[in-house]
Amino acid sequence: MKNMVLLLCILFLCSWAEADAQGFHLQPTPQKYVGSEDSVFIPARYSLQVGATLRGSAAEQLLAGLFPDAAVTADFSVCIGMKGDKSVRKYAARIPKQAEGYYLKIDKEGIVVAGADRRGVFYGVQTLVQLIALPKLPLVEVTDYPDVPYRGVVEGFYGVPWSREARLSQLDFYGRNKMNIYIYGPKDDPYHSSPNWRKPYPAQEAEQLKELVECARRNEVLFYWAIHPGKDIRWNTEDRDLLMEKFESMYRLGIRAFAVFFDDISGEGTKADKQAELLNYIDDHFVKVKRDVAPLILCPTEYNKSWTDVEGGYLTTLGDKLNEGIKVMWTGDMVVATIDKSTLDFVNPLLKRKAYIWWNFPVSDYVQDHLLLGPVYGNGLDIKDDMSAFVSNPMEHAEASKISLYSVADYTWNMENYDSEASWKHAVRDLMPLHAEYLEIFAAHNSDPGQNGHRFRREESVAIQPALSALLKAYQEKNEIDEDAYRQVAEECRKIIVAADGLLASGNENRPLITEIRPWLIQFKQVGEYGAEVLNMIRLRQQKDAFIGSYEHARALLVRMGETDAQYKAGIKSGSLHLMPTFNALFEAATTGYNAAFHAGLDTKAVYSPYTLKSDVNQLASLPIQQKGKVNTIIPSNEVINWQAGGVLTISMDYARQLSSVLIDLGDAEVADSKFKLEVTSDGTNWQAVDLKPGYRTQVKASLKDLSVAKMRLVNVSDTEQKVYFKMFRFTEN
After folding, report:
1. CA angle, residues 227, 399, 222, in degrees to nearest 5
2. What is the Rg, in whole angstroms, of the alpha carbon atoms belonging to the chain?
3. Domain spanning 150-420: CATH 3.20.20.80
4. What pLDDT shows up at residue 600?
5. What integer pLDDT is reported at residue 394 of this predicted model?
6. Are residues 462 and 374 in contact, defined by beta-carbon separation less than 8 angstroms?
7. Which end of the chain is flanked by fewer CB atoms within 10 Å, N or C?
8. Quick one: how many helices (H) and strands (E) in the chain?
9. Do strands 693-694 and 728-733 pair parallel, antiparallel, or not at all (unpaired)?
10. Does residue 723 contact residue 641 with C-beta atoms inside 8 Å?
């Protein structure tokens, strides 16, 4: 702990010059801060006073790291205490009534932190950590408390779960940023979900969980462990008892908070009355019996408005039957969506309790080729009283996720004074104070998820977008160069190249972050180089020989970007919302103009997709197709697909192509074979069925040799809606 505090202070001091220029910021933004221009230096001799109720607490440990050489008595005193402690009795009227609130005062005589409870004192000391790192300790009074009772993170994404080291770093991060909850629920942990949720963790994994629980305790973070049994649960006494035994085994590891997830499943596990019966049993026979266990959390099957059948009664059943103290999670109007008052006004009456917000941001498991590093915005600033909690589902890139999580902490603490842009800039500087300028440039151009099945988009390249638009408009419509826009874009390309190199060569300032984002940094630099060369192309459009050199270099950079993308299973995209589309459009316009001027036959296409996807199945309609050589894959969806009777997924080719095979995984090979039909056409009119045969596990496959395919479609030929997964749809050309 002492080392952590000292390191934090060093980082703050290293970034002080920038902080001073931009204005010092306390994180998260306090409710009330009254400062003065006066300051005080902590003398060499000081005393510590710790309230009796705080002996051995996380706050005391944190304070001891800040003040390791305390004397028994001194003129300057540092005092911490909880409401009711003798040490802070005279400040009782100043302590906020809200849970986790604190009052902090620094004057010439000393420092006082008085908290409403243990966690409040800890948060007051965390504020002191930030203040004491300044060159001069300001004389201040801070009265502070959170808007949202539970604030934090749910590790609930699909993909590679976080490492032990990443989780430990995350928990320290939550403590510093006054987040009080972490929910452990990685989808790909087999002992959290199927097939092994009934089994205890092996010894090594169990010890790592114990370590995490202890780290959470040091950071005043409530560690929730979640189980995900719905894929294969049997509603019988045996499975219920096995689940209770699993909870008992987790309790023995030190865990005192539990959740049950029934999300992204189909079949028997989706029954609301059975879910309520099970959760009530756990609440009555485990939570209430133990007495030291936090309220139980349920993630329901219908966890967003777009999937909710109000008339079907799923949510109302939960609202009517669940014990009052059980919390129910909610993602908003859609799986991935911002949270506003209207969605809470919709769900809260149905649940008969305040929703427990599971915010699917900055999670990127549905767009693994993108990073989501932009500002946290779009959530209501008037909803603090309409929710019981707000937890963020992050990316599998733990360190990179901290940019967003920093702002989530800021937003949930003080909504009224939340400034998304300012918070984002502070987050970037917090993560890499010595290279903040470079990281901000990178993050600004890597924030939008691209085309995706959830239709969720984010702003990207905001500052340079007007110049990009002006440059392209002038060139396409008037065959002119907007010189001012040209200079701005050229300078941005230069900054991109420098920022990428600067971060790649940043040493050990934040090695875990650079390791996570390295592939995107490589691609980012190539985007900048490509943009710079395209600018040369439009400048050299009337110079026959000089243009060719720029054209060939730009084409080579496109090849290199394609190779970088192909090296990774999910792909690597950077600057995809504005930078690359503008550069590609300028490339094509410049080459087209050159061909016309010099009667040349240069290839004008910067990017071309030979395939188009259409579907009347709403959850599939916006899924992109990923092309890697001759193998083409529709990006899978993580949730259950409600595929209506007669619903069609169609892929159209640019021309009739020779395909060798198709591989499909809907989660159940028998359902795919008996309820669905794969058809192809060579002319767009006459369709023929293609036999589907069993493949590996839940896959089915088809051979298309000797067939010319202009279009291909998968149809639900049953007379009922099919609830399926969409794990794979892959077709390969000859």
Report:
1. 40
2. 29
3. yes
4. 97
5. 98
6. no
7. C
8. 20, 26
9. unpaired
10. yes
Report the catalytic residues. 264
CATH 3.40.50.80 for the 611-733 domain, yes or no: no
Helices (H), 326-419: 341-351, 398-413
**C-alpha distances out from residue 437 to 20, 100, 516, Å:** 15, 34, 19
> CB of 176 within 8 A of CB of 125?
no
Helix, strand, coil percentages, rounded to 5, for the chain: 40, 20, 40
Terminal CA-CA length for the chain: 60
Distance (Å, whole) CA 46 – CA 496: 49
- Spell out the domain ranges in the chain: 2-144, 150-420, 465-598, 611-733
By residue count, the chain amounts to: 734
Distance CA 679, CA 686 (A): 10
> Which tokens go with 540?
């050299």
Nearest in space to 504 (alpha carbons), one of 484, 519, 487, 494: 519
Q: Which two tokens stand for residue 543?
A: 């110079």
Cis status, amide bond into 28, omega within 30 of 0: yes
Kindly state the tokens that stand for 629: 């050589």
* Range 465-598 has CATH code 3.30.200.20: no
Give the other-Cβ count within 10 Å of 207's Cβ.
13
Task: Give tens-digit pLDDT for 283-332.
Answer: 999 999 999 999 999 999 999 999 998 999 999 999 999 999 999 999 99
Say if strands 181-184 and 222-227 run parallel, antiparallel, or are unpaired.
parallel
Outline where 398-482 has alpha helix (H): 398-413, 420-431, 436-444, 465-478
Which residue carries 């440039």 as its tokens?
441
Residue with tokens 């200079």, as numbered in its chain: 487
What does the pLDDT read at residue 21? 35
Spatial separation of the C-alpha atoms in residues 401 and 585, rounded to whole Å = 32
Q: Tell me the C-alpha distance between 732 and 556, whole Å.
A: 26
pLDDT in tens, 398-437: 999 999 999 999 999 999 999 999 999 999 999 999 999 9
- Return d(Cα 80, Cα 210) in angstroms, integer: 29
Residue 514: which H helix or E strand, with range? helix 511-539
What local confidence, expressed as pLDDT, does residue 23 receive?
Answer: 61
CB 428 within 8 A of CB 416: no
Intervals of the chain under pLDDT 70:
1-23
* Tokens linked to 618: 């709403």
Among 71, 29, 695, CA closest to 423: 29
Helices marked H in 291-363: 314-321, 341-351
Residues 6+ apart with CB under 8 A from 651: 611, 612, 613, 625, 634, 711, 712, 713, 731
Token code pair at residue 601: 């036959």
Write the DSSP symbol of residue 201. P
Containing 140, the helix (H) or strand (E) segment is strand 137-144
Residue pair 531/493 in contact (Cβ under 8 Å)? The answer is yes
SS3 for 165?
A: helix
Tell me which residue of 571, 182, 173, 155 sits closest to 395, measured CA to CA.
155
Contacts 24+ apart (CB under 8 A), 345-351: 345/386, 346/305, 347/305, 347/315, 348/386, 349/319, 350/310, 350/315, 350/316, 350/319, 351/315, 351/318, 351/319
CATH code 3.30.379.10 for 2-144: yes
